[in-house]
């Protein structure tokens, strides 16, 4: 299957060097003297001064152009990128007030139909026990990634750190400890003192029908949800623990926003409001097949994706329900004993509190 979206043309190198309106062919400059005719200033010094001026000028004017200029899409993407990363929100706040940030991002966010009273539509796909797993390479305009299709939804389970809530563990470590064939990182965590230990999950964790962690004791409080019922159906959007029990949820983490609900995309304006970053997402087709998606980011090979791009990729793979999971440095996909994407952290995999994993068929009840 060809999942390529589009290709970027490569830049061609320039033959001449342009300097203050004059064209210099560098190969014709006499290197023995190193000076231009009629002056005592070496050419390399002029070039260095010019480049330094350009750097300083760009450093001053570029942020002003981005944050206050007329390019709304650029402004929304840049502000969203800073705003979605808690440790970099101060950059957006340095240039803009909270009111201005809210105005820029306000109409870009996902609109959750569940929060507006729409009921969860039940998918009747039966139980399909097989061991078929497919992995596709995804290529977008600014990103590369992997899409994994798991044909038996009842094999999906939540795995979590054995050190929780003190510290998290890498996705691959959690997967190996549980004997999983494949896994992606799942829910977010509270980063205490910016230590990046990934131990204390945001929201709740449910495994094998039991609540193994939960910040909210009130079961009527609705939270962002990525959950699987005992029949293998994916439920996304805002739901309370009481509702999840009613649906027969067996595996769940708390995260969002939802990207597709009951076959309808939730982002119709803007890019989703979270800027460009590495992404992890979870989806399900009408036939029950589960979609694991990771998008690499923060590198020259792959900058990252917006939530709108993740949503559109899920739609191309025929997802009827899909949800965003924790991204950034946490984004990891594990398969057959190794990590098959490129995590953005220079140190490799980041410690996380939870994963969605694919268990061997023999371990499914």
Key descriptive features of the protein:
alpha+beta, seven-stranded antiparallel β-sheet, 365 residues
Topology, element by element:
Layout: E1 17-19, E2 22-24, H1 43-68, H2 72-83, H3 89-95, H4 98-105, E3 133-139, E4 144-150, E5 156-160, H5 171-177, E6 182-185, E7 189-190, E8 200-201, E9 204-207, E10 210-214, E11 223-229, E12 234-239, H6 241-247, E13 249-253, E14 258-261, E15 264-265, E16 279-285, E17 290-295, H7 307-316, E18 319-325, E19 333-335, E20 338-339, E21 354-358
Antiparallel strand pairs: 1-2, 3-4, 4-17, 5-21, 6-19, 6-21, 7-8, 9-10, 9-13, 11-12, 11-13, 14-15, 14-18, 16-17, 16-18, 19-20
How would you describe the overall organization of this protein?
The radius of gyration is 24 Å and the shape is globular. It contains 7 helices and 21 strands. The longest helix is centred in the first third of the chain and has 26 residues, at 43-68. β9 and β10 (210-214) form a beta hairpin. The relative contact order is 0.17. Residues 4-36 have low confidence and may be disordered. The protein folds into 2 domains: 17-105, no CATH class; 114-363, no CATH class. The chain is α+β, with helices and mostly antiparallel strands and 365 residues long. The protein has a 7-stranded antiparallel beta sheet, covered by helices on one side. The protein has a 5-stranded antiparallel beta sheet with strand order 5-21-6-19-20, with helices on one face. It is 21% helix and 26% strand.
């Amino acid at each position: 299957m060809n999942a390529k979206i589009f290709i970027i043309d490569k830049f061609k190198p320039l033959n001449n060097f342009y300097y203050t309106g004059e064209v210099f062919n560098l190969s014709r400059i006499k290197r023995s003297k190193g000076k231009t005719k009629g002056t005592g200033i070496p050419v390399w010094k002029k070039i260095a001064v010019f480049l330094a001026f350009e750097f300083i000028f760009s450093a001053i004017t570029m942020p002003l152009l981005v944050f206050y200029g007329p390019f709304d899409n650029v402004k929304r993407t840049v502000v969203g990128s800073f705003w979605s990363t808690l440790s970099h929100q101060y950059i957006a706040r340095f240039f803009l007030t909270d009111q201005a940030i809210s105005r820029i991002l306000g109409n870009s966010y996902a609109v959750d139909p569940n929060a507006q009273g729409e009921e969860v539509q039940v998918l009747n796909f039966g139980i399909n026990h097989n061991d078929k797993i497919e992995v596709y390479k995804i290529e977008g305009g600014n990103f590369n990634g992997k899409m994994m299709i798991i044909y038996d939804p009842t094999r999906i389970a939540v795995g979590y750190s054995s050190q929780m809530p003190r510290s998290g563990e890498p996705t691959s470590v959690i997967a190996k400890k549980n004997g999983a064939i494949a896994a992606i990182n799942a829910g977010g965590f509270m980063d205490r003192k910016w230590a990046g230990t990934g131990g204390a999950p945001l929201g709740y964790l449910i495994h094998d029908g039991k609540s193994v962690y939960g910040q909210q004791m009130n079961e009527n409080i609705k939270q962002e949800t990525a959950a699987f019922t005992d029949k293998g159906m994916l439920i996304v959007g805002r739901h309370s623990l009481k509702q999840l029990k009613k649906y027969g949820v067996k595996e769940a983490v708390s995260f969002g926003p939802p990207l597709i609900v009951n076959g309808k995309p939730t982002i119709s304006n803007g890019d989703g409001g979270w800027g460009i970053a590495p992404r992890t997402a979870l989806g399900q087709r009408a036939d029950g097949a589960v979609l694991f998606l990771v998008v690499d980011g923060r590198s020259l090979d792959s900058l990252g994706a917006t939530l709108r791009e993740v949503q559109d990729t899920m739609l191309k793979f025929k997802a009827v329900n899909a949800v965003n999971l924790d991204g950034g440095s946490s984004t990891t996909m594990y398969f057959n004993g190794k990590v098959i994407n490129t995590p953005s952290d220079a140190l490799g995999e980041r410690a996380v509190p939870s994963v969605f994993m694919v268990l061997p068929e023999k371990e499914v009840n």
